[in-house]
Target: 16S rRNA pseudouridine(516) synthase RsuA
Amino acid sequence: MKFPCRLDKFISHLAELPRSKARAAIKRQEAQVNGEVITAFDFQITQQDKVTFAGEPMVFLGKRYFMLHKPVGYVCANVDELHPTVFDLLDEPNMADFHVAGRLDIDTTGLVLITNDGDWSHRITSPKHNKLKTYLVETQEPITEDALEQLRNGVQLHNEKDLTRPAKAEALATYSLRLSISEGKYHQVKRMLAAVGNKVVELHREQIGNIILDENLAAGEYRELKEGEVKL
Model:
């Protein structure tokens, strides 16, 4: 939300009402700005103004940033008709402007970042900023040194013109590896493993850039990012 802002838009957003209902309530003299009843829909307010609506203070909380430990079965969307979304796991006010910075598939677990700061999420997710995303991968077939070397050099994905960017790949056990990539192509990790003759059985994201999933967060839990994490 940008300021100055129209009163009807501000109330509609924070009260989570259709604009028409917000306007009707303003017309009924239910809105006050700095203690004065305002009936003009297009009255311009700033972040410093004190707005009350139907007797309740309307406070814009500004830019916010959350990390979520995504469980299996949730989609990274604001609304979905078939599946629960990651937003169903958040108990926070005024989430209409929020979005996921770096989506995960419905069957993938791990770190998801949620914010209402579009510039910040672009810096996190855009390939040109080269932020590594790190995954723990469980595979169907054993991890071979040849497969690791291919991943490190870049592999050819089906229906893609260019090779993937070189990845960081480290074998952790016979059927597991840690993989770090700086791109975000559709189903990229799964397609990369398929390109080297293997199949992903389980996939978990543990890190985006320098932001690491809090080990104290159980699946389905979330917390606000610390100031230092936002700056990372």
